[in-house]
Amino acid sequence: MPEGAVAGSPQLEQALAIEPGYALAHGFATWAHQTIYVRGGMHPEHQAKAIRQAHTAIEHGLGDAMALALAGFTIGIVEHDRKLADEAFERALALSASCAFVYAFGCVPVAYGGDATRAIDWGERAIRLSPVDAMNYISQGIIGFGNFLLGRHEAAIDAGRRALQMNPSFSILHGWLAAPLAKLGRLEEARATGERLLALDPGFTIGRWCAAVGAAPHISDSVTEALRLAGLPE
After folding, report:
1. Which residues contact 218 (CB under 8 A, 6 or more apart)?
2. What is the pTM of this model?
């Protein structure tokens, strides 16, 4: 969430002042600014910082799979350059084909780009490779979101609930669960889930989120319809 990203940013700046070519620190910095941008008001300065740090992570991290994964994650979500993001993930997997971190962070922009099948596959691979990983709430959440995009709403709900058990404070997970609940007509549950999202992220709107993450046009209509049914503001 933005509060954690803001708290961690000064330490990352100190690390980079000591070693400007430290690729993984650039990777974590781009993740921090991405979080602040997407969930902290979409201020252009954080967007610019996230993109700049992502490209610097690639520049210094051609041999670092985690740095490349974080760069690809931000480039896909914040810069909306799916091609460059895919290139970063491909290079990361060429370096470390069994790195769960790459699949976990890669599945997110892949899903937002509308490739639900690949997003689910990458999320499942991340969990198989690292079953007790603290970041598995991301993979599990994307498995749910991908199933929603494919119309498999019961599977989406099951995965969404598992993701929230892992990290109930990660706001967008509530949206990924609210959407399939709404599509199945379970509106009371969907609206209660949407209220929990707004409690964590009071500034959330559907349009702002779709714009921030660059949701592909062919998925944004179905996402918008479902989240509107769940009572979330447009």
Report:
1. 114
2. 0.91
